[in-house]
Specification:
Elements: E1 114-117, E2 122-126, E3 135-140, E4 144-151, E5 154-159, E6 162-167, E7 171-173, H1 174-184, E8 186-191, E9 195-199, E10 208-213, E11 217-222, H2 227-237, H3 248-253, E12 258-263, E13 266-271, E14 275-280, E15 285-286, H4 300-310, E16 322-323, E17 327-328, H5 330-339, H6 349-355, E18 357-358, E19 369-374, E20 377-386, E21 389-395, E22 399-404, E23 410-415
Antiparallel strand pairs: 1-4, 1-7, 2-3, 3-15, 4-5, 5-6, 8-11, 8-14, 9-10, 11-12, 12-13, 16-17, 18-23, 19-20, 19-23, 20-21, 21-22
Length: 419
């Protein structure tokens, strides 16, 4: 492999991704235009953010009846919980048959010395080589990094925009890391345009599912589409009214120009012209802790909610689930987090949107809720944690993760905490 200046050895990988949209909204609107051209008037932030870690790699097991003060991270797996319930969310609960992973995948993450996080959930990246040092980022399970050096049990690393120190014992390194990368990497579609419309079906005549932002990655569910597969997809997931106005034969003839991606726990289609498909490892997310004493300019109540929510980073996504430790879906996550502090949110994302007061993006505060969907229907919800970021239970592949708040166009920002 060729070496380049600085970080060199390459690594690209296997089946998951996340395309995200980042534009400033003076007011959040559900209306979206209907062409594939980049949308005008959007202020795009093009950074890719992925979830991060704790020193021991797991979050503490915390029940909803415990003290509202966020508990410290621990080095043991979260406790089991048995409160999984079916949820009425209108999201897909069936898996699309995945294409087989290529036997040999090109590696495209240039690392001179590759490290991969071997934790259950996430690993804290510290400003200095000490557990008492400030957390500057988080590295999720199987996320990659470049290792500068290892001294006294600490590895100095860089991953994405995060540079700092992690406990070396929680990294797979060197050749073993390169071998693992092929197994744990994800196949993603990266948005190349300022703002990209994705469709319910592989046709520009189809309804717009959402709008995604430049440089965000989304998991590729199916790259090579064919008529037999599409017929099966339509029979399972598409309503008759969604086929209205679509030239079916023209859609079939154009399948080679489309790819099926995962947007949270839904499937959508995007034109290959506007994305770059590759194998990648997740990278660290740059994020610190909010002071719960109000010194950061955020109320203690809001800061406590955010810090509590972040403890479950990397935990499982379970459709219909409401357990913060054993598995939850998006609205189960927000309901559980706010319920811990005495706020009674309804069960579904749509009902939570209806129950919260709308605020503009210019007035958004940590602890507010971001709602996403299409056609006036809310299908996903997340908690704003500050610095343009959200935490949410995204899908079975990524679990509870941190993302850009505008990775896709929100249809509403809702307020629960009034202070």
């Amino acid at each position: 492999m060729k070496k380049s200046l600085g970080i060199k050895r390459a690594a690209i990988f296997g089946l998951t991704g996340a395309m995200l949209l980042t534009f400033g909204l003076s007011s959040v609107s559900a209306s979206i235009v209907s062409t594939e051209e980049p949308m005008a008037g959007l202020n795009i932030s093009a950074d890719r953010f992925i979830v991060e870690e704790v020193e021991t790699g797991v979050a503490s097991a915390i029940t909803l009846n415990s003290s509202p003060t966020p508990a410290p991270t621990a080095d043991i797996p979260p406790a089991e919980a048995a409160d999984v319930q079916p949820a009425p969310e209108e999201i897909l609960s069936e898996e699309i048959e995945a294409e087989e992973k290529e036997e040999h995948v090109k590696l495209n993450l240039n690392y001179e010395r590759l490290g991969i996080a071997k934790v259950d959930t996430y690993l804290n990246v510290r400003a200095k080589a000490s557990t008492n040092s400030k957390t500057v980022g988080k590295l999720t399970k199987n996320a990659g990094c470049h290792i500068y050096n290892v001294k006294k049990g600490w590895a100095k690393i860089v991953s994405g925009k995060v540079k700092g120190y992690v406990k070396a014992e929680y990294l797979v390194m060197d050749k073993k890391a390169e071998e693992l990368a092929v197994k744990v990497g994800t196949k993603v579609a990266t948005v190349k345009t300022q703002a990209l419309r994705v469709r319910a079906l592989p046709s520009t005549d189809s309804s717009i599912y959402s709008v995604l932002s430049k440089n965000e990655d989304f998991e590729v569910c199916r790259e090579k589409l064919n008529e037999q597969w599409l017929e099966k997809f339509i029979s399972k997931h598409i309503k008759k009214k969604q086929l209205k106005g679509i030239d079916y034969q023209a859609m079939i003839a154009d399948l080679s120009n489309w790819v099926c991606i995962s947007v949270d726990n839904d499937y959508a289609f995007v034109s290959k012209e506007y994305v770059a498909i590759s194998y990648k490892l997740n990278r660290a997310v740059k994020i610190g802790d909010l002071a719960t004493d109000g010194s950061d300019g955020v109320s203690s109540g809001r800061a406590s909610i955010v810090e509590y929510a972040k403890q479950f980073l990397g935990n499982r996504y379970v459709y219909g689930g409401t357990s913060l430790t054993n598995g939850t879906d998006c609205s189960g996550f927000t309901m559980g987090v706010f319920g811990h502090f005495g706020y009674g949110l309804p069960r579904t994302s749509g009902s939570q949107a209806a129950a919260t007061r709308s605020v503009s993006s210019s007035d958004v505060k940590p602890g507010d809720l971001f709602f996403y969907g299409s056609g006036g229907h809310v299908s996903h919800v997340a908690i704003y944690i500050g610095s343009g970021m959200i935490i949410h239970a995204s899908n079975p592949s990524s679990g509870i993760k941190i993302s850009n708040a505008y990775y896709r166009q929100p249809v509403k920002i809702g307020r629960v905490v009034n202070d």
